[in-house]
Amino acid sequence: MQFGIFTVGDVTTDPTTGTAPSEHERIKAMVRIARKAEEVGLDVFATGEHHNPPFVPSSPTTMLGFIAAQTEKLVLSTSTTLITTNDPVKIAEDFAMLQHLAEGRVDLMMGRGNTGPVYPWFGQDIRQGIPLAIENYALLRRLWREEVVDWEGKFRTPLQGFTSTPRPLDDVPPFVWHGSIRSPEIAEQAAFYGDGFFANHIFWPTQHYQQLIAFYRQRYEHYGHGQADQAIVGLGGQAFIRPKSQDAWNEFRPYFDQAPVYGNGPSLEDFTEQTPLTVGSPQEVIDKTLTFREHFGDYQRQLFLMDHAGLPLKTVLEQLDLLGEEVVPVLRKELEAKRPAHVPDAPTHESLKAARDSENALV
To answer: Where is the composition biased (Basic and acidic residues) (predicted)?
Structure first.
């Protein structure tokens, strides 16, 4: 079971002070947060990809390469890489390069994003979002797995005798998660290839994601990758933690009320009741997170959003201390104890390499 954090990289005014960080300060803060994640024993740091204010992470591989040089164990990922508006050739090359720099500590999450205007900014049509995701990923897989690629599709110029460089580290492509909050077509795509499916269930009710994940599991088994309960599932979540529950509620409320993503909507009480957002003590975060297994089955990756809505860096680092020292160790123990032996761990570069070598030895 992997635990980590993901960031959307928003530059948001702190409602308690009326001040906002500069883009430079926010970018440097994200790097500090990633280092802190490793320091407190988390497994994964993932960054979003956005190309519009108030977000800053327009170049995830640049940031992750910089973080790779300052960490030793942290798996570096994305949340998400825009498969619809990035050229698959550039994705193949960028993440293979990152693999080499990070000694394999890399995977990525594919998604379509949630900003409609990004499509015309990169010369694409939002009405073709699903077909773009399907075609572009099919090409990306071939670029990583075939030395020489001939390709002709609908959305980009043909390739003739093309070799993507550098080749993936150890000839093992990065593991791919397909992220979605609403599209069964993306769950189907993940299942078809035997990839991971990441449900970022931070906004919508549990029942919606239960249906989406159940569909992915069924199709994963249908395509012969294993039993439904062996499918590779990741979940998003949100938390604000203080040693005392009421302190957490009092401190987080102004950030929630003014947050660009959900401010001026449901009350904090209603939102925490209907979504995975947990505001409270470490034990309350533990208790609610353990219900995710009851709702979705055994899963492999849990990422928390901790640094949004204008929270100052000092507060975020305090949150990570509580998450890493008091919450995650208990979750690891509880979830591992309940997980059947046949349910796999989250894939890593080393496990994928070992599986490849084992298959080759049998040939």
So the answer is: 347-363
Strand 2-7 relative to strand 44-47: parallel, antiparallel, unpaired?
parallel
The answer to whether 48 touches 8, Cβ cutoff 8 Å, is yes
Contacts of 39-42 with CB under 8 Å at 24 or more apart are 39/324, 40/320, 40/321, 40/323, 40/324, 40/325, 41/324, 41/325, 41/328, 41/329, 42/3, 42/4, 42/5, 42/74, 42/320, 42/323, 42/324, 42/328
**Domain architecture of the chain: domains with CATH:** 2-362 (3.20.20.30)
3 state SS of 224? coil
Q: Which residues, listed in sequence order, are joined to residue 318 by a DSSP beta bridge?
A: none
Query: Cα–Cα distances in Å, from 346 out to 3, 41, 349, 350?
Result: 10, 16, 10, 11
pLDDT tens readout for residues 211-263:
999 999 999 999 999 999 999 999 999 999 999 999 999 999 999 998 877 76
Q: Looking at the DSSP assignment, which residues form a beta bridge with residue 173? A: none
Sorted by sequence, the CB contacts under 8 Å of residue 261 that are 6+ apart come out as: 10, 203, 308, 309
Q: pTM score > 0.70 for this model?
A: yes
Give the C-alpha separation, 37 to 323, whole Å: 9
How distant is the alpha carbon of residue 359 from its chain centre?
29
| Nearest in space to 126 (alpha carbons), one of 137, 113, 138 | 113
What is the residue-averaged pLDDT of the chain?
Answer: 93
The shares of helix, strand and coil residues in the chain, as percent rounded to the nearest 5, are 50, 15, 35
Q: Are 291 and 237 in contact (CB under 8 A)?
A: no
Q: How is residue 251 written in tokens?
A: 């401190």
Q: Distance (Å, rounded) from C-alpha 97 to C-alpha 251?
A: 42
* DSSP codes of every residue in 121-147: HTT--GGGHHHHHHHHHHHHHHHHH-S
